[in-house]
Amino acid sequence: MSKMPTVKDVAERAGVSVGTVSRVLAGEAAVKPSLREKVNEAIVALGYRPNVTARALRTRRTDVIGLIVPDITNPFFAQLAASVERAAQDYRHSLMLASSHDDREAEQDHVVAFLDRSVRGIIAIASSDNPDLQLKSPIPIISLDRRFGAFPLVSTNHAQAAALIASHLFELGHRRIAYVAGPPDTEAGRARRKGFVTRMKQLSDEVELEVFFGKFDYESGEKIARDLLSRSPQDRPTAIAAASDQQAIGALRAARDLNVDVPRELSVTGFDDILLANLVVPRLTTVRQPTDTLARRAVELLFSQSSDIGDEMIDGSLIKRVSTGPAPQ
Amino acid sequence: MSKMPTVKDVAERAGVSVGTVSRVLAGEAAVKPSLREKVNEAIVALGYRPNVTARALRTRRTDVIGLIVPDITNPFFAQLAASVERAAQDYRHSLMLASSHDDREAEQDHVVAFLDRSVRGIIAIASSDNPDLQLKSPIPIISLDRRFGAFPLVSTNHAQAAALIASHLFELGHRRIAYVAGPPDTEAGRARRKGFVTRMKQLSDEVELEVFFGKFDYESGEKIARDLLSRSPQDRPTAIAAASDQQAIGALRAARDLNVDVPRELSVTGFDDILLANLVVPRLTTVRQPTDTLARRAVELLFSQSSDIGDEMIDGSLIKRVSTGPAPQ
DNA sequence: CTGAAAGCGCTTACAG
DNA sequence: CTGAAAGCGCTTACAG
Q1: Is A328's Cβ below 8 Å from some Cβ in B?
Q2: Which of A2, A62, A64, A72 to mutate to test the interface with B (most CBs of B within 10 A)?
Q3: Strand D nucleotides, any atom under 7 Å to a protein CB
Q4: CB 3.0-4.6 Å disulfide test: which of A15, A84, A139, B119 passes with A295?
C-alpha cells in the first residue's frame, strides 16, 4: 500500500504551505479563495484524509464520545445506546462503548481508559449510586438515566412518570396494590417508588400498598410476583406495578405459570416502554421514557460550553395497553 | 488542572533519558534492573500515564477495535456486541461501536471512519450481502455472523444448526411444515433455509414444506404466521420453523391472537437463543448460537498474524423447550 | 492573508 | 545497555 498523503503532499501539489492547507481544512475564512480552491483540488486529487491521531495530539481532543452502560444486553440500555450513537453522529462523533457489568471498579477503569484516549466527553449510565466518587476530569461527564458519581444527570422525571401509573391504576379501581421497586441504591429506583407511593397516598389513604425491592431484571419481577400470586385470591393484590418493563414481563410470566389471568384477575404495569413491551402477551401498559430526547440532551450538554450544567428531567408518558383493566370485584 | 506528566518528566525524575523510559514502558528486557526500578518509581510518584495518542501517531496503531452492527437494539446483536467487548477487553482493547441501520452506505462510511481513527482491526456484522464491495484496508477486517464484503467470516454453522431443528420437528411427527426464512440477500438467511430444507428432504419426501421469506424481525414472523394460521385447520402447518427467535416470537404472538394453542396445535421454533427465548410464553425451542465463542474467535483472528485467514464455522446446539410438541393428529 | 517554525508526546533506528 | 536525535502529521502562535 502506498503511503497515505499528508498535509505536506497536499501543500506541495497546491503550491502553498502546510499552514495554509491546515487553514482550509479548518474552514477558516481567512484564506484567499484562489488558494483555497487549489488546496481543495489537491485534496481530492490525492484522496487526502486528515490524520485524526496527529490532529488529536496537537489539539488534545478527539471526535469520539465515550459511553458507559451497565449492560448492553439490557434492552433499555441498548435503546439508549442506539440513541446516543445517533446523537453523536449528528455531531460527527464516533462512539466508544464500555460495559461495567454493574461493577463500580470496572466503571471507573473505563472512565480512566476513556480519559487516556482523550475522548471529547463521557456519558455514563451508572450501575448504582456512588456519591463519594471523587473524579477529576478535564472533559465533561454527564450521567444518563442513572446518576454517575455527582455528575449532572439527564433522565426521565421518574417520579412524575411513576405517578402516572399510580393514577391509572387508581382510576381502574385498584385498591390492593403491590409495587415492585428497583434497587434502593439507585436514584432511579428510589424516585420511581417515591413518585408512585406519594401519588397513591395522595389519591386515597384507603389503598393497601405493599412495596417489594428487587433488581431491575426479569428474574426479580418473576420471583416477587410468584410469591405474591401464590397467596389466596382474596389476599393477593389486584395490580402489580413494576419499576421496569423487565420486571413486569417477569411478573407476566409468573401470572401465566400460575394461571392468573391478566388483566381480568390481575393488572400489571411496567416502566421504560422497551420494544418488547408491545410484543409480550398481553401487551404491557407502561410509561415511555423518551430515549431519543434523553440521549440527544446528554450529548448536547457534552458540547455546551456552559460551566454550570444542572440536572435535567424530561417527562415520561403513559402508554395504555392491555395488561391493565378494571379491578376484579 | 496541572499538566499531565510526560515521559520527559519521568526521565528527569529518574535521571535517565526518555528513550530508557520508553523502553521500560514497552517492557523490554534490555534495561538494567536498577534503572528500570528508578523509572518505575518515578512513574508512580508522578502518576504518569502514557499518552496513547502520541503513541498511536508514532506506531500507527491504537488499542481499539471497531465493531459495526446493523442495529444494537436487536437482542442478538446486543449479545454479540457484549461478547466482542469482553473479548476485546482480554486483549486490553477498547471497543468503538457503530450502527449501520441496515444501510450499506453507512456501513462503508463507518469503515472509513474507523480507518481514519486507525483502529487495530474491524469486526463487521453486515446488513446484507455485498460481494462487490472493494475495500482496501491496511488493517484486518473480519465478518461476524453475516458476511461483510468478501472478508473472512466467523459464524455459526447455520446449515448444521438449522438441520438440528428439522430433525427435531420430524421426530415429533410433523409432516406439514412452514419455514419462515430470513432475507435471501444474506448468507445467513440462505444457509439456514438450505440446511433446514435439505435435511427435511433427506428425512422424507412426504413432508409438505412451504417456505416464506421475511426479514429477521418480529413483524415478519407475526405477519407470515398470521396468514398461515388463518387458513382452515386442516390446511395449515402443524409446525412453523423460523430463521430467527424474533420471527418465532412474532409467530407465537400471532398464534396467541388467533387462539391457536402452542404446542398442542402448533409447534414453533426459533434460531439464536436470545435471552428472551427463555422468557416468552411458551418458552421457545431454538438453536443456540455460541456468541461468546464466535466473538472470541473473531477478535483472535484480528490479532493473528497469519495472512491466510479462512472462514470459520462453529456448531450450534438444539435447545429443546416447550414451544414444540408432538404433531396433532 | 500567508509562510516558516515550533511543538504536541511518544518510539525507534543509530551510535557508542 | 543507554543517550541523543529524528520524526510520526498535524495546528497555531509569530512575523511579515
Answers
A1: no
A2: A72
A3: 1-13
A4: A84
DSSP readout, B197-243? HHHHHHH-S--EEEEEE--SSHHHHHHHHHHHHTS-TTTS-SEEEES
CA A234 – CA B5 distance, rounded (Å):
69
**A182 in helix, strand or coil?**
coil
Residue B57 forms contact with A (CB below 8 Å): yes
Q: Does residue A75 sit at the B interface (CB-CB below 8 Å)?
A: yes
Q: How far is the CA of B202 from the C1' of C13 (A)?
A: 65
User: Per-residue confidence of chain A (329 residues) as pLDDT tens digits?
Assistant: 457 899 999 999 999 999 999 999 988 767 888 889 999 999 999 999 999 999 999 998 899 999 999 999 999 999 999 999 999 999 999 999 999 998 999 999 999 999 988 899 999 999 888 877 878 888 899 999 999 999 999 999 999 999 999 999 999 999 999 999 999 988 899 999 999 999 999 999 999 999 999 999 999 999 999 999 999 988 999 999 999 999 999 999 999 989 999 999 999 999 999 988 998 889 999 999 999 999 999 999 999 877 788 999 999 999 999 999 999 97
Measured CA to CA, the distance from residue A137 to residue A112 in angstroms comes to 9
- Sequence-distant (6+) residues with CB within 8 A of B89 are none
Domains and CATH numbers, chain B: 7-50 (1.10.260.40), 64-156+292-314 (3.40.50.2300), 158-289 (3.40.50.2300)
Is A32 near strand C, with its CB below 7 A from some atom of it? Answer: yes
Inspect the interface and report whether the beta carbons of B97 and A99 lie closer than 8 Å: no
